Amino acid sequence: MIVSFNYRPRSSLIERLDPRARWIFSILVLFAITMFWDVRFLLFFLALTLGQYLLARLTWRETRRAWYFVFFIMTTMVVVNTLITSSGTIGAVLRGTHTVFFHQFTMPVTGWSWEINLTVERLWFAVTQVVRILSISALFLVIPFTMDPRQYGATFRGMGIPDRLAYTLDLAFRFVPTLGRDFQVTLDAQRARGYEVEKVEGGLLTQIRKMAPLVVPVTMNAILSGEDYANAMDLRCFGLHKRTWIERLAYHWPDYLWIGFGALLLLGSIALSLLGYGKFWVPQILLQ
Amino acid sequence: MDKPENAWLEVEGLTFRYHTRQEPAIQDLSFDLQPGEVMLLAGASGCGKTTLMRCINGLIPKIYRGNLEGQVRVFGKRVNEMSMAELSQSVGTLLQDPERQIVGSYVLNEVAFGLENLGLPRGEILEKVDRTLEYLGISYLRDREVFNISGGEKQKIALAGILVMEPRILLLDEPLASLDPASSHEALQLFRRLADDGISVLLVEHRVDEVLAIQPERVLYLEQGKQVYFGDAQGLLDVVDYRRVKLPARAVLRRARDAEPPPELQPALPPRSAQPLIDFQGVSFRYRPELPDVLHEVNFQVHPGDVIAVLGANGAGKTTLVKHALGLLKPTRGQVLLEGKDTRKLTVAQAAHTLGYVFQSPTQMLYAPTVEEELAFGPRNLSHPPEQIRKDVRWAIQTVHLEPELKSPPLALSFGQQKRVSIAAVLAMRSRILMMDEPTAGQDYWNYRSFMDAILQMPGFEAILFITHDVDLAVIYANRILLVSNGRVAADGPPPEVLRDDERLRACRVLPTSLLELNLELLPQTGRFLRAEALAEYAG
């Protein structure tokens, strides 16, 4: 069974907008955000996206699990990329000169050495990255909780994506919560066989191997049910003709306004960035 | 035979072998389907039913490749020369699991899916959808989310999505598999009505007993891909082995008179005793604080010696109830004691030492590269000594008759075999209490009877509990029935007592079967419930 995200109508301002307008706005703002590494600009976007989040009348309780997921990914990215390996995006060129912590590790036997050089610049870069990720997450997290699942396909179609791909995207979108549900079922089934995910330990490879009882059934189940869904869709002529979409969408003036606002933000950001604003910035006070 | 020139579907000398296999899946099948008839296609699992359906609905050869000989004609045209669009408006297919063919998130969108794909005008689609929903008596579901409706309703929605395309031939692949008795009765009545209204229905089902109630015009019986019988329903009762296919109890009785009486089932469980193994004390449960209770004040105990069958409608709360025993769910109010210990204070892994629980769907738990390793997974988690694990794995695999597959990857087995592996995987844990959720789903009659016999006669279990929609399974094996309805225990007692109350059973969407009726009739002579063959010596 394909399950949908936990959508319920909540008569918010955001929901009154056409879903296409909301997607287009979100994509425009996403591009705008990616122009900046200056935390002052990014804080503006964080305020903007959190504003949208509040307008959508979402509560912490409903979105808690999604946020935990975001925090998990974000922490991993920031710690591994920015602080430890210093690879990834501009972290690679960013070294900084104001050292806070320095330590050189040497692997026994192999003699590989590996140094950690935490500078003020790199720490501030991590802070900047957190603000960036949070703004983007708040921007897109709103969508699954406040968009009627019936309209997914028609929305993608309405944005110019071909019929077949639009419906496939619709399914792909709903695949996320479906996978979550399947994972829970498998976890329960294996726990009933004495499996304890909490006790999975050992090196990275051992840990991955010990996750097999969860990962294999969930993956296999997705593949096998995928075959059934594909058959069921083929038997109902999916992808043979130009498709009719019974869900209809219509733009109204607030939608144009919303898209216009997004476009303005992006154009403004492009202009600022051409003028040389928005590059990575560290507060002077930290460098003294 | 009837006039084949009028037949809507003609199959002649059909043989098909999948490219990936050595043996043909079906061999030399020939039959025809007449306008407005119900044809039952029966056979054990692996008999080629699904392959035959794929040859008729065009998935073979369009999706599945292989060697096809012979011919399939629909309304005089060869299937492999028809386009999918043309074919789908002549032949509609309801796949086995409605959950795996519903793609829409809401009822209206799901039913409209096929017509949307055909590119019909929106107004026409909506009109046809409404007409179909009305025909099936489910207009009230139109704007509901598919996720929140019952199993029987889901199947009707899936069927509506096919009927809306106005096919004249309907293929139904084991449509009763996931339904409670009352829903499957309603579904069968509906199939009869469709046929009476002019649609030809080809119904694949191994629950022959139940299908015969709607008087299928003809029956095609397959064994290992070969056509064993094609003719009227009465003839089938004389031809097939009643130990392989479940026939109406009276027909079995008639035929078993001349046969050897079956060996008597001797359950190896200890005598009943008073100290409860599991104790539900005023258990209420809800999934989330904002949702309503799904269990209400449930009180019951499992004692040593109990063989409990849990019966009830789809969505009555049977699985939710059983998950509490193992601590997979914890009560919102009240408590569950497993051997005197509150499940809130036990981890699931600790509880698994005492209680083995077989989940409904095997594909959601099988993972290992070989069946042997799959079976060793549970006992290893419980830190059993290696020598004992080896012994228990061997014993478990024998119980489910899969010794030859010990080195095979479980994921390459058929669904029925996978289900048996999942049961063996829990048997190998040697728990003292065994709980099974729909153990016979997807199994053919002979297989499930033989492993149920074996499990009950194996020493080591102190109590067994199984959830089922198969009333006969309860009649044959249980010494206690728990009837669950809307999250409450509606009745709890010995089978003759609980199953006698026809009105209460129907209120819980459980229907008496021919075997139950016969047993109740002969109870004064037998003193207990028996399987149909064993009743032969008591019937006059």
Topology, element by element:
The complex is a heterodimer of chains A (288) and B (540).
Chain A: H1 13-16, H2 19-33, H3 39-55, H4 60-85, E1 99-106, E2 113-119, H5 120-146, H6 152-158, H7 163-191, H8 204-210, H9 212-234, H10 253-274, H11 284-287
Antiparallel strand pairs in A: 1-2
Helix pairs in contact in A: 2-5, 2-10, 3-5, 4-5, 6-7, 7-9
Chain B: E1 9-18, E2 26-33, E3 38-42, H1 49-57, H2 59-62, E4 66-74, E5 77-78, H3 84-88, E6 91-94, H4 107-118, H5 122-135, H6 151-163, E7 169-173, H7 181-196, E8 200-204, H8 208-211, E9 218-223, E10 226-231, H9 233-239, H10 249-256, E11 278-285, E12 295-302, E13 307-312, H11 318-326, E14 333-338, E15 341-342, H12 348-352, E16 355-358, H13 371-381, H14 386-399, H15 415-427, E17 433-437, H16 445-457, E18 463-467, H17 471-477, E19 480-485, E20 488-493, H18 495-498, H19 502-507, H20 514-526, H21 532-535
Parallel strand pairs in B: 3-8, 3-9, 6-7, 7-8, 13-18, 13-19, 16-17, 17-18
Antiparallel strand pairs in B: 1-2, 1-4, 4-5, 9-10, 11-12, 11-14, 14-15, 19-20
Helix pairs in contact in B: 4-5, 4-6, 13-14, 13-15, 14-15
Description of the structure:
The complex is a heterodimer of chains A (288) and B (540). Chain A is mainly alpha-helical and 288 residues long. Chain A has two domains: 10-147 and 250-288, no CATH class; 152-249, no CATH class. Chain A is built from eleven helices and two strands. Chain A has a two-stranded antiparallel ribbon. In chain A, helix 4 (60-85) packs antiparallel against helix 5. Chain A is flat and about 65 Å long. The mean pLDDT of chain A is 86. Among the domains of chain B are: 4-90 and 167-240, 3-Layer(aba) Sandwich (Rossmann fold); 107-164, no CATH class; 365-430, no CATH class. Helix content of chain B is 35%, strand content 21%. Chain B has 21 helices and 20 strands. In chain B, strands 6-7-8-3-9-10 form a six-stranded mixed sheet, with helices on both faces. A six-stranded mixed sheet of chain B has the order 16-17-18-13-19-20, with helices on both faces. At the A-B interface, helix 7 and helix 9 of A face helix 3, helix 4, helix 5, helix 12 and helix 13 of B.
